[in-house]
Input
Amino acid sequence: MVLLSLIATHSDVDLETVARLSAGAPKVPSSLLENGPAVAGAVVLATCNRFEVYCEARSEDDVEAARSAAIAEISRHSGLEEDLVSRSLTTNTGQEVAKHLFAVGAGLDSAVVGEREIAGQVRRALIEAQEEGTASGTLTRLFQTASRTAKDVGALTALGKRGLSIVSVALELATDLSEDIDWRNKAVVVFGTGAYAGATMALLKERGCTDIGVYSSSGRAESFTASRGGTALDGESLTAAVARADVVIGCSGSDNQVGADDIRRVREDTERPLIIIDLALTHDFDPAVREVDGVELITLESVRLAAPAEQAESLQQANRIVSDAAKAFSEAQLSRELDSAIVALRRHTLSVLDKELEKVRAQHGCTGAGQEVEFAMRRMVKALLHVPAVRARELAANGGQDDYIRGLEAIYGITLDESPAKQSGAAAAPVPEEETGRSKSA
Output
């Protein structure tokens, strides 16, 4: 099995393209497994500034087929041409897959370095894939290790102590633009009830803001405010709330974009300045709202440009933690693959031995001579298996595990089966020796 990832992030693709790639993202993993025979598992991580697909190809020879299948499914669900999808995505394989995901989970690849929300998004991506049955055992271990690495970075470096996030930087920008910097005096309207809306509510409360209205086009505002506070707004009360608001925050990514004319109409009877914070990847507000008199617009790009640079020492320490974790994960994966191969060879060899011993027992019975022959044959088999086991470890250390596995099939007719855990998407459990491999010649 080989891991690969297809990546589009804020650092190398414009946010509009990221948003278009993300359209239909929840449908990609299951359709990829249905229509891509080269793919054994898939997980999608889609956030406000990234779209990433993690796949497990069935073999090294299937990597290109897996990539092509992923591009085809992303194109189908996003409506973008396959050529554009292919040009927008960077492909990682091998250890680079783990290194990138671990850096993402730790907030090192975010617009706001060290942000907190992304670790939760990585966890949710795995949970959703497990619920859909698309997370193979290897991908499950990959994402679980990413979460542990994020905790290590947070605990062992200064990045975790700053508590910065996209939302916190956006609110700081809004504070700088305000005539009254005291959030206790501000009326705020929040669009959306998702993860960013929840983080926004928490940070507004930390700043003492209590006048918060929440609107959701999907009708979830009542349940959202019941657990987080604030006032649920509907279509009728929304207009009045926006008219008196000091700050409006978009976190929904709704198809119903608020235009400049909408803001002019709603705010025509007030001269109070308005700050609009648009954190939705697909824009809750038309960028033209910045042209409305008295309106200031803060976007994800504004946040990216305003995000403070982290200390070089903290970043170096965090990158070392990520690199070490990625190396350890890759080595563990190689060892796991070769363990299965060694067990399969042992099973095949002992199967042949047992057949020969049956002949000895049939001829000599349980005599001393028969027992001596059995002892000698078992000792010989043990000696014969020692060199292949050592060689397996050497090849694993140099990335040659596929050569070893192909050699077993070519010489002995042994192929390695997928474990039930991989087929079901659960974390792989130890595989019984008798189920690890089968011999074509047996």
Observations:
- Confidence is low (pLDDT under 50) at residues 418-442.
- The chain has 19 helices and twelve strands.
